């Protein structure tokens, strides 16, 4: 069976059942040849090598919040119940992913940063808890009072306040996460 082999020194490609004894391009030893993988297998290997669960979970749940606020504003101004129902669905989806984000972040704090006691870690933990309370509070209000936007009163503004108050929390979480990620990458070089 013919395979493709790539010299990891110069990038030369050889086709054959086995790698050559010497690279015809750079003269490097045949042991430097590695099998060339297809695009899918290279993608899968790269994904496994570089996947960071916390980054994916945090960006996923935090990325839902601006859309949630947009649908809340559309519901407030249009009165369309479908927009408001979408708000509830987005909140619940974000709440389901938040524990993954929190615990994977906690694991990364322990493994990548040795459980360091720098204030930035505690700010992120505190902000994560606050975000969970704000979004959980909004979900609880909405589930307890399905017509919260139509009924008006204090619950309507508390509901909207929880969601709007979560926006700066998400911004700060992203800011501190970016500082940690780039600081860690700089230190890992």
Description:
It is a single chain. The protein has two domains: about 45 residues, Rubrerythrin, domain 2, CATH 2.20.28.10; about 140 residues. The chain has six helices and three strands. The protein has a three-stranded antiparallel sheet, with no helix packed on it. The longest helix has about 35 residues.
Q: Low-confidence runs (pLDDT<50, min 5 residues)?
A: none
Please list the strands of the largest sheet in the order they lie side by side.
Answer: 2-1-3
Order of helices and strands: EEEHHHHHH
Q: Strand content of the residues, in percent?
A: 5-15%
| Average pLDDT | 89
Label the structural class.
mainly alpha
Q: What is the β-strand count? A: 3
Give the number of helices.
6
Report the principal-axis shape: elongated
Number of domains: 2
The profile of the biggest β sheet is: 3 strands, antiparallel
Fraction of helical residues: over 70%
End-to-end gap: 40 Å
Provide the gyration radius in Å: 25 Å
Task: Summarize this structure as a short list of keywords or feature phrases.
6% strand; mainly alpha; 189 residues; 3-stranded antiparallel beta sheet; 2 domains; Rubrerythrin, domain 2; elongated; 72% helix; 6 helices
What is the structure about, briefly put?
This protein has 189 residues and is mostly helical.
